[in-house]
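Teaching assistant here, posting this on the class forum so everyone can see the example we discussed in section. The complex has two components, and the goal was to see what a joint structure prediction looks like when all of them are supplied at once.
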Amino acid sequence: MQRLIWTIIAAFAMTVVLGPIMIPWLKKLKFGQTIYDLGPESHKKKQGTPTMGGIIFAIPALIAAVAFGYGDTRFDYLLMIVVSALGFGLVGFVDDFIKVKLKRSLGLTPMQKIVPQVALAAVLSVWAYRHPSIGSALTVPFFNVEWNLGWLYIPVMMFIMVGTVNSSNLLDGLDGLLSGCSMIDFITMMLICLTMAEADPANRSNLLNVAIFAGAMVGALMSFLRFNGYPARVFMGDVGSFFIGGALMGMALVTRLSLLLPVIALAMFLSSLSDIIQVGYFKYTKRKTGTGKRVFKMAPLHHHFELSGMPETRVVTMYYVVTAALCLLALLGFVA
Amino acid sequence: MQRLIWTIIAAFAMTVVLGPIMIPWLKKLKFGQTIYDLGPESHKKKQGTPTMGGIIFAIPALIAAVAFGYGDTRFDYLLMIVVSALGFGLVGFVDDFIKVKLKRSLGLTPMQKIVPQVALAAVLSVWAYRHPSIGSALTVPFFNVEWNLGWLYIPVMMFIMVGTVNSSNLLDGLDGLLSGCSMIDFITMMLICLTMAEADPANRSNLLNVAIFAGAMVGALMSFLRFNGYPARVFMGDVGSFFIGGALMGMALVTRLSLLLPVIALAMFLSSLSDIIQVGYFKYTKRKTGTGKRVFKMAPLHHHFELSGMPETRVVTMYYVVTAALCLLALLGFVA
């Protein structure tokens, strides 16, 4: 436990140091993001805020996780999470970099984004499928049963992975929203892995490594919130949101807890769902009646709340509080 | 552990329900606070926000703590914390009520506030002093030694108690500041008491009860943050800040961890300290040179940061993050 707390503190401290070094540099390199043209009017003032801030927490989190992870025995779980976080994070980095260089609000084309994501998801899914202590089963939360998917595990997991990292990306729309919500998710993952490690001595150091990585994310994000909280001095960019999505997904993959994600990461899930409903309903009504109709004032859902008159900070607080409550419910399934 | 999580959820749920019932009622009864005349200019807009919101979380926290506390064996610790939180909270309630009824920004006179506080502190200190498992010693954090104060324990504890509850009151100056910082403190207290309970079987249920009360505070405050976060729909008032101070102090009293308060509750400590320095220096320079000088732009410290150009929300986030980092350091002293 002391090791875990030191991990959190180390990631926190490195991010504290890295932030004030990186932010002016990101700004100087004119890494000011061209704000997504379809966002609410009130977001226009955010034009000058630098982006790609994700590297401010991603680098410290990786260093702390690897430095404090248990290397004495098996560390496959840690390695898989590193590959997932770093891999998806790199796709985001390329996307951000193109946005900045070409001064376009949208970086890679959807195809250029999705192909490497699907490839990475395939590698990770097959890796997990063939891993002796992961395999083709998923835990069904609250019912304590394993659901064995057989070979279907691979396409299902690929779908979940690509869905999760892109949902994480969609949730990153308000100051401190994704950084705070995912921090609560990582606290929860950390606690769950600690209890799982106690119950599974054969896999103990592997599961503790997951807790260590989660702790590193908690420390780094906690510190990053200083810079990303309203009013944000830096945005995390796609590099940040994909890194977070990849890290969370990697943890769900190795612990077989992917079906818990819609509970602890409901905010991400609803961001995607609201986007799909919005676009689907618009296309459907357009085809039926000639004019497209909308379900939400704006998708993803957090913009709907904002345009309904809620101040940005209040939407963010609501998301934090609901996430924390759901995480408490999730924890109930893991403690005695 | 399940019992503890249920406590948090129960307090959370009750506060969720109570908030929307109480806030319009507090507003209707014209419980709009007359904003402290000496606050920053930008706070004038907060004139219409109702106060006394502390009862929205205090009642659920008390109910949850008593309902889920272990009554099968000894519950003296729980009782002492209830007396401390409820006692100091009542002083705050009277103060708030007078403010509202007489439309004065300052309620009770300083004397009328301090006398019942000192009396309550005396009762609690003597109670703890004579308690077989508390006594006259304080734990020195990080050094693992007990510091036995003998009869001096009583005046020292009285000073710490009155200081803590009033510091809690001083920290309640920005939206979500005290509610969020103290929530982090209560999470820490909860974790510390869980580890202490494991190490001390003879006193186990007593210490678990402290964790239960801390959990009830966490759940209730988490939910209250929905209403109290920037921009606040309700202020907690003195009833809230004294209740929080009393609860935290009660927990420190029974666990002998009063000397840990300047670490985990540094934000409270600095609020008082900056106030004392400001007033002291002003009086000193006034006497020496004829004109009083100030150290801070405004005291307590959080107003100084605000007037130095930091947005209110950024000051609050900074306080959260620093508090969380200090709490992690404090936890290092309690886990293996």
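For the discussion questions: The first strand of chain A starts at residue 137 and ends at 140. Strands of chain A lie at 137-140, 145-148. Think about how each of these relates to the inputs above.
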